[in-house]
Structure formats: C-alpha cells, structure tokens
Design a protein that fits this description.
Structural class: mainly alpha
Number of helices: 18
Shape: globular
Radius of gyration: 28 Å
Strand order of the largest sheet: 1-2
Low-confidence stretches: 6-20
Mean pLDDT: 87
Helix content: 55-70%
C-alpha cells in the first residue's frame, strides 16, 4: 500500500510566505515633529501672554538687557569667524534649502518609480515643513524676536511719551540738515580696508548712543556682510537685512558709497537688540550724526532729509533742495535713479515685498507696519530741537 505524500514543513512555509502580502505601515509623524511643533506652539502662546500681561519694562530688564547680550555673543561666533564680506547665515540657509530640495526631489523620484501615492508624499512633506517652521519660530523668538516687546529707546531717551511738534520744527531741521550736508566732507571710502575701518567706527558710534540709557555691557557684532544673492535685495527694495541665525547684519552691495554708513548703523542697532524699526532708525540717525567720521555724518543728514520730505510742503522742499550744493544734488539724483531703476525692473516683486514686510511688522507689535521706519522722525526732530537749544 503506497504511503501518502507528505509535504515538508519548510516547503509549506515557503508557499505561505510567497503568497502573503506584507503590509508595512508608513510613519508620518516622528518624535522630533511633535517636539518642534510643541515648542513653536508654546513660544507662540507665551508671546501672546507676554504682550498683554508683561510690561515692556519687565521685558527690557528680564530679557533684553540681561539675557539677550549673552545669546548674541554666542550665536554671533560663526559670523565673526567667517570674514567679511562672506555671510555665514547665507551659507547655512542656502545649504539647508539645497538639502531640503534634494531630499524632496529624491522622495518624488522614488515615489513615481515605486508607484507610491503622491498625495502621501505631499502630506509627509507638509508635516516636515510645519515642524521645521514651528522649530524655526521658536528659535527666532527666543534668540532675538522677544526684543520687539522691550521699551522704546526713542521714547525713553527723549523722556516724553506724547510728541507735539509744529511744522516749523520740521522745516528748521530740514534747513539745518541742508547746511550740514553742504559743510560735511563727503569723503567716500573705496577700499576694503576703509570699509573695515568704517565698520569699527559704526560699532563704536552705535554703542555710544545706546550707552546713553544702558550701562550694562553690550554685545560685539560681527562685521557687516554682503549677500551673494544681492539681486534679490534689489528686487525686494531692501537696503539692509539682519539675520538672527548667526547675528549678522547685511547691506545691499549696490548702495551708493555714501548711503552705506547709515544702513550699517541701522542693522547694527538690530543686532544690539532693538528690533523696532523706529528705534533702529532713531539710533542710527544719532549714531551717524554724532560720529567723527565725515562719511557717517554725511550719510545721516541726507537720509534725514529724505525722511523729512513727507513733513514738508512741495514749496518748502524745493527751496531746501535748491540750497544744496551741486555735489549733494548729484548724490541725491544718483540715489533716485538707482531706486527708480530697480522699482521699474521689479515692480511686482517690490510691491509684494512691501506688503509682506508690512504684515510681518504688524504681527510683531509694530502697529504702523512699514510706516514704523518713518515714525523715528518725530523722535529725532524733538531730540534735535533740544540739541539746538543747548548749542545756541
């Protein structure tokens, strides 16, 4: 009698395995996603609470004066190690963007090759992006952004909360600036060594102004840098930008030489912890006006004249311009032509950039938005009025 054919256990298992569909659940959320999103949400809630319940005075002494200077000195080290004009911040952000682009490209390639769902890839990318933005927001606020909630430097220095000025005050200041513009030596620097010397003078001038109110040690900024993607600054109508990544100040490389000192001082004021555009402008005005450098003084008086334009009648403005020397008038004309050139070339981008900047400033407790830059003029006019009384 023939024996029944018995399949081996190994053969049976092999058949079962070959016919079995192995399903692996793909993870969308990682532990670091939850951590970054939680940190971003926590700092967002704290900022909202601080804006309502923590006074600017407490934020001034609790964070801006006693914590931020140490943060600035530590995070600015890469910016100090990498010599000007190269930017550590641009290198880091550019590399991070390139890595993210390569990662997404590889994911997209494997997605189509293995016939996976593109929707799942987009969802996964959205989660990654949300987590990174939340983590970046946490870094931004804790490292620098909380300075938006500090006391106003301009108000504290003038010791006057409500500023009441007459039209004649602005007219007198315009006339004074015109006289100074004609008397100051333009002295444009044109070598890298002179740029470094001016950078040191700007550091000193900005610190001297801030020391009028703050006696505690101030952080030392890295040298001013230029961006390789400088054309983007032209397209957006940006003269300077401060990046808290490595605490570096950047200025537009296409600015005229006489324009640069004031913009340098403005960005260095941001490094010192004065996030408000009103305060940064106010500090830069005084720092340049009080400097021993002819280039800095000349840069300040012309920028002040431009800001005073909206406070003067057309007749008064024309009279001020006519009183300027031909060399000064030529400098103003060159600047207007530079701005007009890029505005016409990148009209839509410039307009969009202004809207984005306006929204950003309003979200950071600057209710005036981009008008915050102009808001420094009343403070400066009041300060100048007091200086005139002391001089005469």
């Amino acid at each position: 009698m023939p024996l029944p054919k018995i399949e081996s256990t190994a053969m049976s298992d092999r058949k079962l395995i070959s016919n079995r569909r192995i399903i692996v659940k793909e993870k969308y959320f990682r532990s670091w996603h939850f951590l970054f999103i939680a940190l971003g949400a926590a700092v967002f809630l704290f900022r909202g609470y601080a804006e309502v319940n923590i006074s600017p005075s407490k934020m001034e002494y609790g964070y801006s004066r006693n914590i931020y200077p140490y943060i600035a000195n530590i995070f600015s080290l890469p910016g100090k190690w990498i010599p000007a004009p190269y930017s550590a911040s641009e290198f880091f952000l550019g590399t991070a963007f390139l890595v993210a682009l390569i990662w997404f490209g590889c994911q997209l390639y494997f997605c189509f090759r293995k016939q996976k769902s593109a929707i799942k890839l987009l969802f996964k990318t959205l989660i990654q992006l949300t987590a990174l933005l939340a983590g970046g927001y946490f870094f931004y606020l804790t490292v620098w952004g909380m300075n938006y909630l500090r006391e106003s430097f301009a108000v504290s220095l003038n010791r006057q909360k409500f500023i009441t000025l007459q039209a004649s005050d602005y007219e007198n200041m315009a006339e004074d600036m015109a006289l100074l513009a004609n008397s100051f030596r333009r002295n444009p620097y044109n070598t890298f060594k002179e740029l470094n010397e001016l950078n040191d003078k700007t550091d000193s001038a900005v610190k001297n102004v801030i020391s009028l109110l703050i006696s505690s040690p101030l952080p030392s900024p890295p040298p001013v840098k230029f961006l390789r993607v400088n054309e983007m600054m032209n397209a957006c109508g940006i003269s300077g930008i401060f990046l808290p990544v490595f605490m570096e100040s950047h200025i537009n490389a296409d600015l005229l030489l006489w324009e640069q000192p004031y913009i340098m001082a403005h960005e260095k004021a941001h490094f010192m912890g004065f996030a408000s555009e009103t305060d940064a402008n106010f500090i830069a005005y005084i720092a340049c006006l009080s400097s021993e450098s002819g280039a800095m003084r000349y840069s300040a008086v012309l920028h002040i004249l431009f800001s005073l334009r909206s406070y003067l009648t057309d007749e008064k403005w024309d009279r001020v311009i006519k009183n300027l020397s031909p060399l000064v008038q030529q400098d103003i004309q060159d600047r207007n032509e530079r701005i007009r050139h890029y505005q016409e070339r990148y009209e839509r981008i410039t307009r969009l950039s202004r809207k984005v900047n306006d929204t950003y400033l309003k979200l950071n407790s600057q209710e005036l938005g981009i008008r915050s830059y102009q808001a420094a003029l009343p403070h400066l006019t009041l300060w100048w009025k007091k200086q005139r009384k002391m001089m005469y």
